[in-house]
Amino acid sequence: MSDQNQGHDRLRPRGGYRNLRAYQTATVIYDGTVFFCDKFIQSRKLHDQMTGAARSGKQNISEGSRFNATSAETELKLTNVARSSQEELLNDYEDFLRQKKHRQWGKDDPDALAVRNVPKNRPDNAPLVYEDYARWLDHADPAVRANCLVCLIHQANYLLDSLITRLEKDLISKGGYREQLTTARLAERDKQRGLPPQPTEAPPLCPQCNKQMRLRTARQGANAGSQFWGCTGYPECKGTRKYQSAPKADRADRPDSSSPPTTTPEE
Length: 267
Fold this sequence. Notes:
Helix content is 50%, strand content 4%. It has helices at residues 21-40, 44-67, 72-99, 110-117, 134-137, 142-174, 177-193; strands at residues 213-217, 227-231, 240-241.
C-alpha cells in the first residue's frame, strides 16, 4: 500500500517520506555505513554503534512522517532524533579519518564538490540511490568511502535542519493535531447550527489558559450580535479577546465589534 492516505480525507496527511531528499540521503548513508563497517571496522562495539546511528538517522524520519497524521509534536521530536543520530555518526567518521591519519576532504576538494553536485545532476523527481555514489562508496580506499559519507551526512544535516524549521513553523502557525481536531469539530457544529464559518486566519490563544480560541457571537447584553474571540475551554474558562474582522466588501453586512461582551455569552 502506498505511504499516502487513500479512500478518505484526513486532517493531517501522513507518509510521503520516501520522496524526501533527507530520507533518501539517510538511506544511502545507512547502506554505505553497513558496508563500510563490515569491511573496515574491527571492533564489534563500534560497528554496532555506527550502524545503529545510521539506522536511527533513517528510521526516525520515516516514523516521524507517519506520526504526522496524529501528532506534529512527535514528528518534530523524531526528526530531531534523526538529526542527532547523524551528528553522532559524523563524529565517528571524522574520528576514523583522524586516527588512521587519513586526509579529510575540504569543502572545495574536487571529490567533495562532485558528491555535493550529485543531486543537482539527477532528473527531476528522480530519487537518490546508492548507485549514484557507488564510485566513492565502493572504493577500495576506506578514506574515500569515509570522506564521501562525511559529505553525505553534512547534506543530510542541512536537509534535516530545513525540515525541522518547517515543522516548527507549521506547529506554531497551524497547531498540532489536537488543535486542528478541535477546530474541525467546532466548525462542523457551527455548520449544523447554520452559523457563519470561522475566519481563515489562525485563532489566537486564550490570555487566561493558553488554549486555542474560536470566534463567538454575543447573544445578550449591550454587545448582542457582535463577534469576539472566546476560549474553547468555555464555560470552565471565560477568557475573551477583541475581534476585528478583515475589511471586505462582502462582509459589510455582518456585525463587527471592537470589544467582547460585558456578560457571559450563551452558546
